[in-house]
Amino acid sequence: MARFSYTGKDKSGTSQKGFVEATNLNLAAALLHEQGSFIINLKEVKKKGPVLTFLSGGVSANEIINFTRQLSTMITAGLTLVEGLSILSKQNTKPSLHKMIVDIRDEVQGGSSFAKSLEKYPRLFSKIYIALVKAGEASGKLDVILIRLSETLEKSRGFKSRIKGAFMYPIIVVIGMVAVSVVVMVVVVPRMTGLYKDFGVTLPLPTRILITLSDGLIRWGWLLGIILVLLIVFYGRFSKTRMGRTIITNIILSLPIIGPLIKESILVEITRTLAILIDGGVPILTALQIARDATTNIRYQDAFTEATRQVEKGFPLSDPFLDTDLFPPILSQMVAVGEQTGKLGDSLMKLSVFFESESEVAVKSLTTLIEPLIMVVLGLGVGFLVIAVLLPIYSLTSKF
């Protein structure tokens, strides 16, 4: 996408100058001619540096949802796709978003399909999004597809934020506890140790343990730091291998409460993805492949790869879901009902609602369990520190 400056005259002979964005010089000239401008000079403007581009900000998920909803409204009202994109490009002044919309508009105006133009932005538009747009263009129901997409994206964002929120609280508390403990060990305890030595106080066991831990952290902290970095590097590389991903996934899914919650959240996304793809007219095999790519969990990816093979051989979709413990029996049962009645999309959407409600229960269970557990651990840690610090002071004051 390039930016061009131009000078020219309109039909009445009035001078004009300004900027236009297009993929190339010829398309920029064509856009100006369509607006009724007679071009005198047209040249490309150099792009902003990386710092300015970074400061202008990226396109958020919320902006993509609004873009989808607004575009669907305009198409439903009778505007063409190019007209809708042109209006949106004028309404959105944020540089990164404006540039994206103008680029997509120019691609479509140049003869490219809407789905093809979206493929240039894989980080903003998922394979699910693009596949549905492609199906909408083929069926002539792009406005309906875009409305459904905006609703699905909003539901998905809300669900993911609730799941992240459930994990964020304990993570923040644990990080805070570790940070405070390190500060106490490295800063506070050494000062208290010097004070105790000056007064010749006999130190109780909790204080001796605390001082030993503090000395060890100060003396060997650099080694612990190196080990931690090496472990992080090893985990990063190990998790990229197939064996590593499988082992890590099996461990996570076997954890109590957390494992079932992750399973439920994956099932929500998978069933919702399949439902909207099938209802949108995407072929079942393509829908299975896209659903497979929609999850990063290797065990579920393998399960969907096998399901795709079975369906290719002529087996019903409900059969492969019975051959693994990753899917509950209700999934296979509901899929079988959907296949028999010809309402597979409806059955899958009902399943996604069911799994979402189950995950909400799992989130509440996790929160209910973790909050008191954190309070107990925090209380024990604070209690130990208080006892270790105050006992020598109490012994010292009792001598006077």
TrEMBL record:
- GO term, biological process aspect, one: protein secretion by the type II secretion system
Could you list this entry's UniProt keywords, alphabetically sorted: Cell inner membrane, Cell membrane, Membrane, Transmembrane, Transmembrane helix
Q: How does this protein lie in the membrane?
A: Multi-pass membrane protein
Q: Where in the cell is it found?
A: Cell inner membrane
Q: Metal-binding among the record's keywords?
A: no
One protein family per Pfam: T2SSF
Q: Which residues form the Type II secretion system protein GspF domain?
A: 67-190, 271-392
- TM helices/strands, residue ranges: 166-189, 209-235, 373-394
Show the GO cellular component annotation of the record. plasma membrane
**Similarity-based family:** Belongs to the GSP F family.
Entry-linked PANTHER family: GENERAL SECRETION PATHWAY PROTEIN, TYPE II SECRETION SYSTEM PROTEIN F-RELATED
Q: What is this protein called?
A: Type II secretion system protein GspF domain-containing protein
Native species: Candidatus Gottesmanbacteria bacterium RIFCSPHIGHO2_02_FULL_39_11
